[in-house]
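Bug report

Summary: structure tokens for Formamidopyrimidine-DNA glycosylase differ between web form and batch submission.
Environment: batch mode, default settings.
Steps: 1) Submit the sequence below via batch. 2) Compare with the web form result.

Sequence submitted:
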Amino acid sequence: MPELPEVEGLARFLDERATSHVVRGVEVGAISALKTFSPAPDALVGGTVLGVRRHGKWLDLQVRTTDGSTLHLVWHLARAGWLRWSDVLSERPVRPGRSPIALRVRLDDGSGFDLTEAGTRKRLAVHVVHDPDDVHAIATLGVEPLSEQFTPERLGALLAARNQQVKGLLRDQSTIAGIGNAYSDEILLVARTSPFAPTARFDADRAAALHEAIRAVLTEAVAAAQGRPAAELKDAKRRGMRVHGRTGQPCPGWDGTPCGDVVHEVSFADSSLQYCPTCQTGGRPLADRRMSRLLR
């Protein structure tokens, strides 16, 4: 699933290419992806793109319409969605149900982009709204972790608000916006913290260390994504992972010095997490989420 760094990379990529262009057409390829019906996607046609922003893992294409109002095309790529940019789009119309294309946006110079989704579990969500906050998932987003509002004290308060596993807190979009399964694994390695550590056990020093790890990991990943074409962002993300998706491989160490251990995995029904026992759990493997009694 694309997370904050990749979505930020997509926002910057699309902003550079689409801003000031006129929307020539919007074609819906998957009705299931469209979560709103009024305004209709056709209301964007003839409007001028004002810019592209990110809200957590959501992308927001802002358009000044022909009647002078502002509409937002906002979407969430979910687990299997992606944005595919073309300098020259095919003139062939999108045929619903015949391709992975969920939505196509055509611009006045012949360029444009497709929102695509692979697999059978369709979760990509597209909204056309007057205000991004009209989308409940955006209106309820938590603090942006790279914003000035995200301080060690703010994180400490979030950790203390209720006792839960720290990985769950990092992934909770209503608490901290933009972090998912992959970057939470990376952050917890750098913070030398078990994914199952109870948040109630975090004192001010430990909260500050976690805050520093969040900022460092995300800042590094955003910098790695900057300037890359949309087609390269997925591979760049994979190459930048220290532990996520690297089960059985040597751990590079929380500080970049190999620790001599290998990356371990805990599996769930439809996902998994990766961690290093030496760096994060005092050398003790986590056998199972429900059975582990490690106090981190």
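Above is the batch result. After comparison, the two runs are identical; trailing whitespace caused the diff. Confidence is low (pLDDT under 50) at residues 289-296. Strands lie at 23-28, 48-55, 58-64, 70-76, 81-86, 101-107, 112-117, 125-129, 264-267, 272-275.
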